[in-house]
Amino acid sequence: MPKAPLQHVSTLGIDIGKNSFHLIGLDARGAIVLRQKLSRGQVEQRLANMPTCLVGMEACVGANHLSRQLLALGHDVKLIPAQFVKPFRKSHRNDFRDAEAIAEAVQR
């Protein structure tokens, strides 16, 4: 998967797990420009070094805590209920595809 410079990421979808978070970054046209797996401690560090963008996550307890941290960094954070992400999921479900579905749902 090609990795473009960080300034091209306009929307970021984050799939939250217990120990690892999966990130998918989309450009303004909706093409994937960032695909990354990070541990829980690396997420805030990674997003602190990125230009501000729209960040989407499925709503849960952990998402509320992380959203407050990202709002303090200047990102625009949207929490989406899982029922609105489900229509955007593709077949052969995995964490990266879940993050991609979250990024697509938050754009609409």
Overview of the molecule:
With 108 residues, this protein is α/β, with parallel strands linked by helices. The protein has a single domain, classed as Ribonuclease H-like superfamily/Ribonuclease H (Nucleotidyltransferase, domain 5, 2-Layer Sandwich). Helices cover 35% and strands 29% of the residues. The protein has 4 helices and 5 strands. The protein has a 5-stranded mixed beta sheet. The radius of gyration is 12 Å and the shape is globular. The two termini are 24 Å apart.
Characterize the biggest β-sheet: 5 strands, mixed
CA gyration radius, whole angstroms: 12 Å
Major β-sheet strand ordering: 3-2-1-4-5
* Total count of domains: 1
CATH class placement: Alpha Beta
In CATH terms, what is the architecture? 2-Layer Sandwich
Output mean pLDDT. Answer: 90
**CATH level-3 fold name:** Nucleotidyltransferase, domain 5
CATH 4th-level superfamily:
Ribonuclease H-like superfamily/Ribonuclease H
Which structural class do you get from the secondary structure elements? alpha/beta
Shape: globular
Number of helices: 4
